[in-house]
Each structure stands twice: as structure tokens, then as C-alpha cells.
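Ticket #4471: structure export looks truncated?
Reporter: QA, pipeline team
Priority: medium

Steps to reproduce: submit the single chain below to the structure queue and open the exported record.
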Amino acid sequence: MSAEATNPEAHAEVRPELRRRGRTRLDLRRLGRAALLGPASRDRLPDAIGHVAEAHRAHHPDADLSILRRAYLLAETSHRGQMRKSGEPYITHPLAVTLILAELGAETTTLTASLLHDTVEDTDVTLDQVREEFGEEVCFIVDGVTKVEKIDYGAAAEPETFRKMLVATGNDVRVMSIKLADRLHNMRTLGVMRPEKQARIAKVTRDVLIPLAERLGVQALKTELEDLVFAILHPEEYEHTRALIAAHAGEHDPLPAIADSVRAVLRDAGIAAEVLVRPRHFVSVHRISRTRGELRGSDLGRILVLVTENADCYGVLGELHTCFTPVVSEFKDFVAAPKFNLYQSLHTAVAVPEGYVAEVIVRTRQMHRVAEAGVVALGNPYTTGESADSDEERVDPTRPGWLSRLLDWQQSAPDPDTFWSVLRAELAQDREITVFREDAGSSGTISLPAGASCIDAAYAQYGEAAHGCIGARVNGRLTSLSAPLSDGDTVQLLLAHDASSGPGADWLEHARTPAARIAISSWLATHPDGAGPADAAPRAALSVPGLRGGGGNAVVDLPDAHVRLAGCCTPVPPDAVEGFVVRGGAVTVHRVHCPGVAQMRSVGRTSVAVHWRATADCRVTLLAESFGRPHLLADLTEAIAREGVEVVSATVEPPVEQRVRHSYTLQLPDATGLPALMRAMRDVPGVYDVSRV
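Actual output as written to the record:
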């Protein structure tokens, strides 16, 4: 705000190319003179906000400008006598910020709050006065943008100011819209600041404000902020990029001719479209030069095609790919799958006969408005019904996944330094994924940063209760908690019922979200000895010797033959079975679908008919798969005993990634009790599957 504003002319001399084509730039000296002349007559707007009124009416022809007049008069009188570091009247700053937002299409309430955004912070105007004069909405937005007092917070003032703004943005996204425009104007006028202060402000802009602009979809602000930061933090690379652009300025530019060819193709196809050439901004040119090496004329810009309907986007794409040679690897469909910041477009690249490759962006005019202005283009996102700006369904941008996560974990980070460092790390995650909960209802989705694991999903869904998470199923298949998730995965998280369960230290290696990392670190700090289901050291398998063997109640048609049930499939009544004579004249009984049957036949074993005795008892081998925890073996054997089943033998394999396999050979008094037995074993906490061997 005021501390970040200086002379605009010194900076403009260094980078005239950064001025966006077609954008109105305020003459601060003219505005300063207009502001010093005082208010205009009561029946017209003050001359100083003529630019704002003109830009606002271009987007909102029926807007009532009387509230803007009142806001300007209060701002001008309260800031009167205050000067910026450049020597201009201070009122030029809120005017410039308001014009930036007006050009993006912000509605009247946002512009009113923008004119007043520094009054409470820098003048004697109070929030109560703003509320009484302009209403609760404007008061809330002004309060959200107002910095906390440095005298109260000291060195923590900056992180605590951003924390306050984020919390306010959770209730009204227009708070952050004003902050972004405020920072853009301050960055434009940063030229007379000391170099070290320029660098400090530029770094905060790079680490926090630019990622926030990206997440809110305000590309018009984001790209200019990137160029301004680039010029300050990387002056040599900036000058090199400027020289590259200047070197190509006198050469033949193939993009206008390619745009003419695209217009002709679409005109012949009967598709009404506007075709434009969009120059790349400085940082984009720098990135392209680093990835492609030597630049060609077509690399310095892109073709933008604007249509009316969504279906026309795909019609344009079909014509382009039919009449030109498409570069398949460059195709991206953000119309069917929009980015998490509301961005929608089709991206492709085509090769033309002259040998150039041109990147093409196809979108509707509404998509273009949202792509440039993001949440600002939504008008008032909290307006519904007839007062809304559009008949389309209103998207409320205030609680997207990334913002919900920020608001959740900041409550667990009371320390300003922790909040500040984690905030920067969280904002560095530039992609978002959505996973579905298996118990999905109307809100059965979890938004996570790309690269998040099942651990992150657990803490996002259950909070601190995720300390007891012992496993997960992803798309129906069991997986480890460290497994990374992909966009569209379905996740079922399994929690232990044992209160002593907790995370292991290795969880921090796989946690990507701040909420998960803060919760895990806090638990480990309060449990230094550990108590979670950490992987046990490998140990030998535990075996309980068999008490008796034999063929159970299977009967074969060979007198005096020794019968035994195959351990590979452990058949029980009423399974369809088949017997085979093996060495020593014994008969092994298999289920008919057992792979051992085919093996017996392949080696020429004699098949023998088998039937079951009338007695109901049987022997079966079950495999229980579970997550390791204390007392699991005792709980399983207790569940088996409650069903009146005898344990003939048991084997417990060493745990692998917290998972344990138990094999039980059991003597059942009645084969019909097998399903109930398997259900009882599955109900034991930590057991996720029971199956016959």
C-alpha cells in the first residue's frame, strides 16, 4: 500500500514494453491536479474518476455511479494532504487500483471498497463510519484489506496481515482481488525505492501474490506481476529477453499471415470467430527461449480464436486439424476438464506450409473474460436470482480446494514464522487434483495438490482422527498409505479402532499438504517414544502345530485309500470336488476349479470320484489379511473361538509395510457356518480381507 508506492516514471523508462496493449494508463500528474481541485458539482462525477466511470460502464452499462462518487469524495478528503514517495497526491493510488479492477470488469461494490481500501489504515476514517455510509459488504472488504498494526505485531505484521486477508477471502473473494490490484500498482511504481526494498517486495510478490493470482484465475494481473518481478529480481535475464524481442521486432512476423489463414478456413467452414494475435509477455518469452533454444518469429506470440458457444470451440479445433498439420503433443482440452482456477480453453499447435509452428488457443468470449479476470469476471459471486449478472449458474470461488486447505491448516499454525514458510510452500504447488471418497455423497470429493498421497487424503477427510489410519484402498485395490494419488481416483481410508495408534516418522516423507505435516509433527512431538503401527522388524513365521490331519468327511471310491484334502484350495462341503491318486496310493481332493486339477491331469494322475459324507463337520484353511497392530493375533483367535471353531494350525508371516498375513487351518463343526466365521474375522479391527486359500 502506501509504503510500497514510489515514482512511476523511473520504472516506466526501463520497461515500456510491459504496458499491456490497449490498456488505459493513468496520468498520475493529471489525476493529482484533478484531485487537488476538490470535488465537482453535486450533479456530476469528479473529473478524477472519469477513467473509472468509463471503464466500469463498459462492463456494467446500467451501474449506479452515485456510490462511487460518494466513495471518491470520502477518500479524497481523508487522504488530502498525504503524498506518495513520488510526490504525487496519495489519492492517485486508490484511483489507479480502482481503474485496474474496473478494466477487469469488477462490479460496483468492489470498486467502492477499492477507493476506500487505504482510508481506515492511513487516515482517521473508522470501520464504523464506512459501515454506516456504505454498508456491511464494503466495510468487510475494506477491513479484510487493511493491514494489521506493526506496533502490535512487530516483525510478524506481514505474515499476520496475509493470514487476516486469507481468512477474509474465505468469506469474500473480492478482498484478495483488491489486494492483487493494489500490489500491481505498487509494483508499477516501485522505481525510487531502495534496491533492497524493491527486492524484498518483489520476492513476496513472487512467492505469495503471483500464486494467489494464478489460483484466482486473474491472468491479466498475474502476467504483468511476473514481468515486473522478473525485471527486479533477474535484471540480466530480463535485459537479455528484451534484446531477443527487440532483435525480432524488425524481422518478418509470420503470425499475422497465419491468423489470416485461420480466418479464411473458419469463414469457409461457416464458423463465426474472431482471430487475434496475442504477443507473449516477457516471462513467457524467457521460458520459451530456455526450452526451445533459438527463437523463431512464431514463438513470440500465439493465435487466439474467440467464438460464441462451447460447441464452436471443437468445431474450430476440427477445422484447424483438418486444414493444417496438428502437433499432437501440444493438444490440451481445458474445456471438458477446466483447471481448478476456472480456466477453460482448447490449446493446440499447427504447422503451416511455410514451416512455422503456431500455438493456437480456442475459447468462447465468456471463457476469455474469465481467463483474463478470473474471479473478478464473476461480478458479485454471492448474488443469486434476478440480480445476478448472468443467466448461467453462478460459481462461488470462495472455497475452492486450495483455499479450504489454507484456511484449515492456518488454524494449526499459530506461529507466524511457521505460517509464513508453510504458506509459501503450499502456494508453490501449482496443480490440483480431485479424488472421490468411496462413501461419496453429495460432497464426496477431496481436493488435494498434485503429488498428494493417501496420508494427505486421510488428514483432509478426518483431521486428527487420521492418526489412526492404517491403510487405504485406491480404486478398490489395497495400497500403502504412501501411495501417490491421481486425479479422479476413488479412495477408501481404513482407520484403526485402537486409540494408541498413531503415525510413524516416515509419514512426513510422504505428506505433501501442510495440514498433514503439521498434524503429524505435532503428534510425534507429543509421543517421542512412538506408539503407532510402525513396521515391525522381520521375524520368523509363527506356526501352531496341527492337531490332526486326514481327509475330513471326503469319501473316495477306492477301498482303504488314504484321503487328504488339498492344502492349495482346502475344499469343504458342498464344494464340487475331484480326487487324484498320488504316490503311495493316497488320494488328494481338490475343488474342481483349483489350478492343481489341471496340473494333476497334465502329469497323468488318475482321477477318482469323490463325495461328501452326511456329517456336516469340515476342515478349511483361511487367509486373513490385516494391518499390523498390538493384540491382533489374540483378537482373531478369540473371534474364531466365539464361532465354536477349532484351530488346527496357524501361521503368521512377518509384516510388510504394516500389512500382515495370517493363515488358519480350521475344523468347523458345520460347513454351513463358514460364511459367518469369515464375517466375524473380517469384523476384527485391522482386518481388511478374509478368503479361502
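Status: closed, not a bug. The export was complete when the record was re-opened. Leaving a note from the reviewer for reference: The chain has 27 helices and 22 strands.
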